Amino acid sequence: MARRLVTILALLLALGLAAAIAMLMGLFGDARSQPAAGTAPGAPRILSARIVQPDQVHVRLSDPLARSDPGNFRLAHARAPDIALPITAVRALPGGRFALTIGRPVRQAESYRLEILEPPLARAVRPSSWMLLLTVLLSSALINNFVFTRYLGLCIFFGVTRKRDASIGMGITFTVVMITTGMLSWLLFMFVLKPLQLSFLQILVFIGVVAFLVQMLDTVLKKTHAGLHKKFGIYLMLITTNCIILAVPLLNAAADAGPLESFALAMGSGLGFALALFLMSCARERMELARVPASFEGLPIAFALAGLFALAFMGFSGLDFFR
């Protein structure tokens, strides 16, 4: 029975990760721009477009352009496509590339739309897939840590961090559950709830996915790792109602995030929670050897330590990985 449950859990995790990797690999390929309607088959194509400086965009074309003046190019923010950003100069570069000088600062973390009037071409200027993955991953783990900046998941955080080995096991378990439920919830939302206009049921569906996986994990650990299951105690089942594990699918659904952002947020939040558990367990084990006033023993000193960790994590605020 235990082997069957382990096999089922492994298959679910493998399916979730396989779907995530497949979608990520599809996103990592350079999407080529298609000529607009009415363009001749042999017309030039925009091979790539990226922001290299706060005021410059480099564009690479398959063939030379008849017009290379600033009036032949148009750049607008993806959220405001009707408002064009001023292009002050266009400079030709080797290899069929052009350097567009923008009159206003543009950010590498934002998405834009580049258009060429003659011939009519268009391409989305998006951040690098790897850079976006790294940014969301580190931001959710360090800059916007769900425990130290959003104060979510505190029940398990204070309950499991008494011992280091229990916190490490819970961190690994939570990360696996977070990635699996995050991707499965994204798949259900994008391909079931959203097409059928059932988005109002997302909370019930997400809780059901989490409860199913956690119940299965509880049964597996009880049969295969009884000692670790006993250390987790009731906090293993509390993963079902953990604020973090429910907040990530809800944030992805509210932002209409793609598979890349959803995968990065799920992994980053899981790793950030595991890091918080590990740091807090190390500090609490050291505090057992310290002389703590009687009125601060137990949870009071734990809350004080959590506040100090939150202040330390505020040092990551303002980091921009696209610089």
Short description:
By secondary structure, the chain is α+β, with helices and mostly antiparallel strands. It has 2 domains: 46-118, Rab geranylgeranyltransferase alpha-subunit, insert domain (Immunoglobulin-like, Sandwich); 129-316, no CATH class.
Structure explained in plain terms:
This protein has two domains: about 70 residues, Rab geranylgeranyltransferase alpha-subunit, insert domain (Immunoglobulin-like), CATH 2.60.40; about 190 residues, no CATH class. Helices cover about 50% and strands about 15% of the residues. The chain is built from nine helices and eight strands. Strands 1-2-6-5 form a four-stranded antiparallel β-sheet, with no helix packed on it. About 5% of the residues have low confidence.
Strand arrangement within the widest β-sheet reads 1-2-6-5
Helix content: 40-55%
Average pLDDT taken over every residue:
81
SSE ordering: HEEEEEEEEHHHHHHHH
The outline comes out as elongated
- Strand proportion, as a percent range, falls in 5-15%
Structural class: alpha+beta
How many structural domains?
2
Q: How many strand units? A: 8
Low-confidence stretches: 4-9, 22-39
**N-to-C CA distance:** 52 Å
- Specify Rg, calculated over alpha carbons: 25 Å
Number of helices: 9
Outline the biggest β-sheet: 4 strands, antiparallel
